[in-house]
Write a structure and sequence with these properties.
The complex is a heterodimer.
Chain A (H helix, E strand, L loop, with lengths): L2 E4 L4 E6 L2 E6 L1 H7 L2 E5 L6 E2 L4 E7 L3 E5 L4 E6 L9 H4 L8 E5 L11 H9 L3
Antiparallel strand pairs in A: 1-2, 2-3, 3-9, 4-6, 5-8, 6-7, 8-9
Chain B lengths: L6 H6 L3 E5 L2 E6 L4 H10 L1 E5 L4 E7 L5 H6 L14 E7 L5 E9 L4 E5 L4 H12 L3 E5 L4 E6 L3 H6 L13 E6 L2 E6 L8 E6 L1 H12 L4 E3 L2 H10 L26 H6 L5 H10 L3 E8 L10 E4 L2 E12 L4 E9 L8 E6 L2 E8 L12
Parallel strand pairs in B: 3-13
Antiparallel strand pairs in B: 1-2, 3-9, 4-7, 4-8, 5-6, 6-7, 9-12, 10-11, 11-12, 14-17, 14-19, 15-16, 15-18, 16-17, 18-19
Helix pairs in contact in B: 2-7
Classes of the chains: A alpha+beta, B alpha+beta.
Chain lengths: 125, 365
C-alpha cells in the first residue's frame, strides 16, 4: 500500500520506495474548474523542494504546482497533453502530473496524511 | 458585498459565487465553464448581468437627450431611431475610454447600460455634465438578464412572441410574466440573443421561467468571458481603459461618420488626429502556437524587443486552443505578423490574426 501525503498547496504525493508521483487533490481540481492544459516538467530536470515545476491551466487561471520535495523528474504524464480533463475526472489517478526520484524522503515528514488533509480542506469551506 | 435579485437562485442552482465589481456573482454552475460555453453556442444560456448599471436619460424641456449625450460619447446618438440601439464609449479629454456602454432610444428617452465597476463614476460623470439638459435616473436596482445563443429566440418567444422578429441592436417594451420589461436583441457573446431589463421584484420569476424552457441553462461569468473573447469583444478595464482610444482599440466603427468630422465629444482632437495620421498602437488578435495560454499582462515580443502586451488571453472552448488579444505598435500590427508571447518567462510563438476568432452570428432579419 503506497503512502499518500498532501501539501497545504493541495498537491498529493504517492510515495513508492524512493519514487514520488505528484498530482493535485480533488479539492484543488474543483476549485480550479475545467483544466485545459498542464505544463509538465521534462524528465531529467533536477528540482528543489518548493520550486515551481508544473503549471495547470484552467479556463479561468493558471496555477503553479510546486515540488513537494527535492529530487529529479523521471517521468511526466504525457497523456495530459491529449486529455487534460483527466485532472478533473481522476485527479488522484489518470490525472497525475509527474514522477520524481526523491533525494531526501525526510523532506516529506511535514506533509499531511489523508486524515489531516481531509480536516484541512474541511476547515477551508 | 452587493447581491443581484438572483442571488438566491444562484445558490439554489449550486453556483460558485465570487466577488466581482462589488457583487457576489456566479462564476460558474456545477456543470463548469466548458459545458456552459458549449451550451450557449449550441442552445441558449441565461446570464445574470444585473450588476451592470442601467440609467435612463430624459430630456428636460427645450433640450435633446441624444444631443446632450453626444457631448460625452463619440457615437451617433442623435441618429438613433426609436427602438434602435448603439454601442459607444464615454471618452476623456485625451481620447481615453472611461467606460463603454450600450445606448437605446425608446423614442422619448435613452436607456444606457454601463459596466458594473464603472457605474458610480459614470453616474457622477452624467450628473456633472448633463444635469442641465437631462433628467438622469439611475435604475441600479433593476435586473438585467442576458439570454444568448442560437435557440434564445425560440425560448424567449414562448414568453413574448414578438421578440422573434426583432433584429440585432433593436429594443422594445414587452410584458413578460406580467412585468413590463425592456428587451434588446444584443449581447456579449458574438451570437444571437437578448438582454432583458426587468423590474427588480420580477427578475427571479422571469429567470426561473426562462430556465424552465428546454433550451435554456444557467451560465456564469466564467463562460461569459470565454465567449466574449472568442467574439473579439473588449472587456473594460482590460482591453480598453483610460489609456486606450477608440482608434487604438479598433472601435472606430462605433464612432459616427459625421462625428469623426465634427467632433464635439471629449478627446475629439486626439481621436481625429489618430484617424488622420494613424494611432501609435492597435488592438490585435493573437493566436499562440501549442497549448500554452498567454494571459493578461504577457509581453508581446518581436526579435527580442517588446512591442506590446496581452490584455486578454485564455482558452477558447469553441476552438479548443488558446487565443488572446493585445496591443502592439502600429508598425507591427499587420495580420500574419509573427510574434512571441512571453508565458512564464518562456517565448511562445504566435501570429497576429483578424478578429473575431469565432464568427459573429447576429440576427439581422
Amino acid at each position: 500500500m503506497a503512502d499518500v501525503k498532501y501539501t497545504d498547496e493541495h498537491e498529493w504525493i504517492r510515495i513508492e520506495g524512493d519514487v514520488g508521483t505528484i498530482g493535485i487533490s480533488a479539492y484543488a481540481q474543483e476549485q480550479l474548474g475545467d483544466v485545459v492544459f498542464v505544463d509538465v516538467p521534462a524528465a531529467g530536470r533536477k528540482v528543489a523542494k518548493g520550486e515551481s515545476v508544473a503549471v495547470v491551466e484552467s479556463v479561468k487561471a493558471a496555477s503553479d504546482i510546486y515540488a513537494p520535495a527535492s529530487g529529479e523528474i523521471i517521468e511526466a504524464n504525457a497523456g495530459l497533453a491529449e486529455t487534460p480533463g483527466d485532472v478533473n475526472t481522476e485527479p488522484m489517478g489518470k490525472g497525475w502530473f509527474f514522477k520524481m526520484k526523491l533525494a531526501n524522503k525526510s523532506e516529506l515528514d511535514g506533509l499531511m496524511d489523508q486524515a489531516a488533509y481531509d480536516a484541512f480542506v474541511k476547515g477551508l469551506s | 458585498m452587493k447581491r443581484t435579485p438572483l442571488y438566491e437562485l444562484h445558490k439554489e442552482l449550486g453556483a460558485r459565487i465570487v466577488p466581482f465589481a462589488g457583487y457576489e456573482m456566479p462564476v460558474q454552475y456545477p456543470t463548469g465553464i466548458l459545458v456552459e460555453h458549449a451550451h450557449t453556442r449550441r442552445a441558449a444560456g441565461l446570464f445574470d448581468v444585473s450588476h451592470m448599471g442601467q440609467v435612463r436619460l430624459t430630456a428636460k424641456s427645450g433640450h435633446n437627450a441624444a444631443k446632450a449625450l453626444e457631448t460625452l460619447v463619440p457615437g451617433d446618438i442623435a441618429g438613433l431611431q426609436p427602438g434602435q440601439q448603439r454601442y459607444t464609449q464615454f471618452t476623456n479629454d485625451a481620447g481615453g475610454i472611461l467606460d463603454d456602454l450600450m445606448v437605446t432610444s425608446t423614442g422619448d428617452h435613452l436607456l444606457l447600460v454601463i459596466n458594473a465597476a464603472c457605474k458610480d463614476a459614470d453616474l457622477a460623470h452624467l450628473q456633472k455634465h448633463l444635469s442641465a439638459s437631462c433628467e438622469i435616473e439611475p435604475m441600479f436596482a433593476r435586473g438585467l438578464l442576458a439570454l444568448q445563443g442560437p435557440q434564445a429566440a425560440q425560448a424567449l418567444a414562448r414568453l413574448a412572441p414578438a421578440v422573434a422578429t426583432m433584429t440585432f441592436m433593436t429594443g422594445a417594451f414587452f410584458t413578460i410574466e406580467g412585468a413590463e420589461c425592456y428587451v434588446t436583441r444584443s449581447g456579449y457573446t458574438g451570437g444571437d440573443g437578448y438582454e432583458i431589463s426587468t423590474p427588480a421584484a420580477a427578475t427571479d420569476a422571469i429567470a426561473r421561467k426562462l430556465l424552465a424552457q428546454p433550451e435554456v441553462k444557467p451560465v456564469g461569468l466564467g463562460a461569459r468571458d470565454s465567449l466574449r473573447l472568442e467574439a473579439g469583444l473588449c472587456l473594460y478595464g482590460h482591453d480598453i481603459d483610460t489609456t486606450t482610444t477608440p482608434v487604438e482599440a479598433v472601435l472606430l466603427w462605433s464612432v459616427g461618420k459625421e462625428r469623426r468630422v465634427q467632433g464635439g465629444f471629449p478627446g475629439a482632437a486626439v481621436v481625429q488626429k489618430q484617424i488622420a495620421e494613424g494611432a501609435p498602437r492597435k488592438r490585435v488578435g493573437l493566436l499562440p502556437e501549442g497549448k500554452a495560454i498567454a494571459r493578461e499582462g504577457a509581453e508581446i515580443v518581436i526579435g527580442g524587443k517588446v512591442v506590446g502586451k496581452v490584455t486578454s488571453g485564455g482558452f477558447a472552448p469553441g476552438l479548443e486552443r488558446a487565443i488572446a488579444m493585445g496591443y502592439v505598435e502600429k508598425a507591427q500590427s499587420a495580420n500574419g505578423t509573427k510574434v512571441e508571447l512571453m508565458v512564464r518567462g518562456k517565448p511562445v510563438p504566435a501570429e497576429i490574426v483578424p478578429m473575431p476568432f469565432v464568427k459573429h452570428a447576429y440576427y439581422r432579419g
